[in-house]
Write a structure and sequence with these properties.
The chain is built from ten helices and ten strands. It has helices at 17-22, 49-62, 79-82, 125-137, 157-165, 177-181, 184-194, 226-233, 245-252, 265-268; strands at 34-42, 67-71, 99-100, 106-108, 144-150, 170-175, 199-204, 209-210, 217-218, 237-240. It has an eight-stranded mixed β-sheet with strand order 3-4-2-5-1-6-7-10, sandwiched between helices. It has a two-stranded antiparallel ribbon with strand order 8-9. It is globular, with a radius of gyration of 19 Å. The structure holds adenosine-5'-diphosphate.
């Protein structure tokens, strides 16, 4: 904040915390209520962000919380497939209704609106960001206790718009052991800091592989850096997910809710 702050952000060019707080968040429609919102972020695609989003939603739904997933990964939506959702979302006149999974998780994703799920979304950044905002404002999110937003990877235009327009309570960073050595976690943490959003925790995916024959753990992408990272950034909530072909198989067949292993059970308890 400037020494001479007048608390009128429209007349000042400084990028301070006060300005961030002054940015107007988008309102939900009159039929919706969402108590808590968490953004799931990663530095790049393919590290398992959607898998983590799906597993977290399964955990909170099982614990009795009315759970929602807003799939903000517009150009690479993978949430409907993981839950085997093939019905289209439709409007009941009040707004668009999310599609419910077997566990009762409400999902909205661009793939639930496209005629064919293989249709590519070839839109420019502002249109994509506008679509995500509409998923927040125009979908009927009825009595949701918790919402997970599967964010597009990176720190670009769309994540920025989401953080500015949706009241996100915390972010969860998904990494693989290779990413942790790079600047990726730091970038995500710093972006959250700039937006005044707390980091709830870090999930290291593809952390290791347990040999099904001898039970030995193999650190295929190198030793875990999770402890190093958590102490460096003061992040206390952490979890590891091993490489598991069964998880990939269940995602591919739309049955992630049937995954019998629960690597995020404890991690999700504080959400
Ligand atoms: P992202 O959302 O970061 O792009 P996804 O969650 O879509 O990544 O994962 C990418 C692919 O890797 C998917 O096919 C998924 O099933 C697979 N995958 C992710 N995590 C694991 C894991 N721990 N074990 C096995 N396969 C995984």
């Amino acid at each position: 904040m400037s020494e001479n702050c007048t608390h009128d952000c429209s007349t000042c060019g400084e990028n301070c915390a006060e300005r961030e707080n002054a940015i107007q968040k988008d309102e939900l429609n009159e039929f919706s209520s969402v108590k808590k919102v968490y953004g799931i972020v990663s530095g790049k695609g393919g590290v398992g962000k959607s898998l983590v989003t799906s597993l977290l939603a399964c955990e909170t739904a099982r614990s009795g919380k009315k759970t929602a997933i807003l799939d903000a990964d517009i150009t690479g939506p993978s949430v409907p497939k993981a839950f085997g959702l093939s019905t289209r979302a439709f409007s009941d006149g009040r707004g668009i209704l999310p599609v419910e999974t077997r566990l009762g998780i409400d999902v909205m994703s661009i793939n639930l609106l496209l005629e064919n799920e293989t249709d590519p979304v070839v839109w420019r950044g502002p249109i994509i960001a506008g679509t995500v905002k509409q998923f927040w404002t125009d979908v009927i999110w009825e009595h949701e206790d918790i919402m997970f937003i599967d964010m597009p990877p990176g720190t670009g235009d769309v994540p920025l718009t989401v953080f500015q327009s949706i009241p996100v309570d915390g972010i969860i960073v998904v990494t693989s052991p290779q990413d942790l050595v790079s600047m990726i976690v730091e970038k995500a943490v710093n972006m959250a800091k700039m937006m005044n959003i707390p980091v709830y925790g870090v999930v290291e995916n593809m952390s290791y592989f347990t040999c099904p024959d001898c039970g030995k753990k193999h650190f295929i992408y190198g030793e875990s850096k999770l402890e190093q990272i958590s102490s460096r950034f003061g992040i206390t909530n952490t979890a590891r997910i091993p490489i598991d072909p069964e998880a990939a198989r269940l995602v591919d067949s739309g049955k992630i809710e049937e995954y019998p292993i629960r690597p995020l059970e404890d991690f999700a308890k504080g959400l």
